[in-house]
Amino acid sequence: MGVAIETARLIIATPEAGRAQGALEFVRRNAAHLKPWSPPAPDGIDTLDHWLGVVETAQQALSAGTAVRLWLSPHDDAARVIGSIGYSQIHRGVFCNATLGYQIDAQCEGSGLMREALSASNAYMFGEQKLHRIAANYRPENVRSGRLLQRLGFTIEGYAKDYLFIDGAWRDHILTSKVNPAFEVSWIAGAAPRTVTPSAR
Ligand SMILES: CC(C)(COP(=O)(O)OP(=O)(O)OC[C@H]1O[C@@H](n2cnc3c(N)ncnc32)[C@H](O)[C@@H]1OP(=O)(O)O)[C@@H](O)C(=O)NCCC(=O)NCCS
Asked: What region, left, alpha or beta, does residue 76 occupy, with left being phi > 0 and alpha being psi -120 to 50 degrees?
């Protein structure tokens, strides 16, 4: 079973084969827009096969609980992909943390769509996936991304030198996170204090 979240303007859902062509067209349309903020493109990114593979990997990762990947579509055209959100490196136990990434179509920038999407998907990750913390890191030059995270309630935690290999070089990043105010300690497996019964002699 995939994730499907509906907001006022968007359908935010787990990748599926019927939208793979839409994802391919999204990266083709946005190559220049995404380049300054993206890791090296994997081989085959410009083929439908690659995006069908992404669909399969995303569904497996959702089942395994290791990542939640979501594609954004407008209500009136569910096959058109206009953005994506990924919660990766999900750790449970005493961390209950994910790392967030996101991108919106250049044509849709400045309309509050990513804020709308992330408000809903973060609520899902806190409420349904039961995370305690979402980490999000951005290049200091990425003013739009910093503004978006601030509006969503992320707080700055630090500055990491040469943090990620982005757009052909190691790039500094500002580290931020948002913590789940409604996290319940019982969500941590084995959180209850263990009682030890002394053995009878
Ligand atoms: C980072 C990114 C998602 C930000 O997108 P965005 O459209 O600026 O973000 P928001 O959804 O918060 O939209 C905010 C803008 O919409 C405007 N807006 C218009 N209608 C709005 C509405 N109904 N509600 C909220 N904001 C609205 C706001 O005023 C604001 O505009 P401004 O920044 O010119 O002041 C986008 O720039 C992007 O995809 N960049 C490339 C990939 C990338 O950098 N990813 C992140 C790597 S860390």
From this structure: alpha
Pocket of ligand 1 (CB under 6 A): 33-34, 37, 102-104, 109-115, 138, 142, 144-145, 147-148, 151
Domains for the chain: give ranges and CATH numbers.
4-183 (3.40.630.30)
- The pTM (predicted TM-score) of the whole model is 0.95
How do residues 91-144 score in pLDDT, each as one tens digit? 999 999 999 999 999 999 999 999 999 999 999 999 999 999 999 999 999 999
Phi-psi region of 93 (alpha: psi -120 to 50; beta: other; left: phi over 0): left
- Exposure of 12 by Cβ count < 10 A (0-12 exposed, 13-18 middle, 19+ buried)? buried
